[in-house]
Fold Odorant receptor 4-like.
Amino acid sequence: MTDLLSSRENKTCLAIFFQAACFLVKRERLMELHETLNDLFERELARRRETVLATLYAFDRPSYILCFVLGSTVLLSICPALISIARQIVRHAKPRRYRLPVAAKFPWPAPTNGLPYYLHLLHQISACWWVMFTIGSVDSLFGYYAFQISSILRAMSARLANPRQNRETFTELLDTCVDTHRRLLRCGHIMSDIWGLIIIRMLFANAILMCALIFEASPLTHLTIGQFFLFVSFMALKLLQTFIYAWYGSLITSASEHFREGIYFSEWPDSSLDRDVRVNVIVTMMQKPMIIRALKLSSVDVRMFTNIVNTAMSYFFLLQSLDEGR
C-alpha cells in the first residue's frame, strides 16, 4: 500500500511537468482565452451584476474543497516523516535513522541522517507543495473560465427574457447576444484544446489509480491509521478532481442550452429584424449546446465522472476475481 502511494506520488510529479508543458505550448491561446472572457465578463458584469454573480457559489466551493483535500494529502504525506524526526530527537535515539516522506529512488544511496538527509527532505517538501499549488491552479483555472462562460450566457438569457429593461433596441440586443455567443463558442474550443490532453491523462490515471488502491487496500484491516487516512485522502482527491471537471463542463452545457431557449422564446419572430440578424439568430438556435470535449474522445460532463467510477470498479472486481481464482 505504501509503495503504491509512493509510486503514485512520484508519477504525480511527472504529471505536473506535463500540465506545465501543456500551458507553455498553448500559452498564446491561453492568453487569447483569458483576454476574451475577461472583456465579455466585465461588460456583462457592468450590466447585470447580480445575475452574473448568482452562480458563483457553484464554482468557488468545489475549488476550495479541492485545495483543502490537496493540502490534507500533502500534510498526510509529510507529517509522518517529520513526527519520526521529532520523536527520535526528543528520545535522543542513537543512531538516528530518518526516512523521507516519499520513498524515491536516487542514483546514490538515500541518506538517513545528517545534512544530506535534510537537503533531500527540503527538496521533497518543496516538491510536494509545488505539486499542490500546480494541480490546484490548473484545475481551479478551468473552473474560473467555466464560471465566466456560464455567467455570461445566463446574463444574456436574462436580458432576452426582459428586453424592455435594456437601453438598446431589440435588434441591437439580438445582434450583441449572437456575436457574444459566437465568441464564447471559440472560447469553448480553446478550452477543449488546452485542457483536452490534461483531462484525458487525468481520466486514465485516476481510473487506474482508484482501481489499484481499492484492490491493494482491501480489506482495510491490515492498514495502519496513517495509511488509512492517506488512502481516504488520495481517493477523495481523485474522485473530487474528476468530479469538478465534469461538474464545470455540465454547467457550461446547461447555460448554453438555457441561452438557446432564451433566444427561441424571445420576441424575435414578431420584430422587424434585418435579414442578416434574422439569419444569425436562426443559425444560433440550430447550433448544438456548447460542450467541452477532451480530444474528441469524451464529453466533459457528469456522465464522464460516472463512467470513470464505473470503469474503476469494474476493473477492481475483475482483479478481485482473478486473485480469488489463484
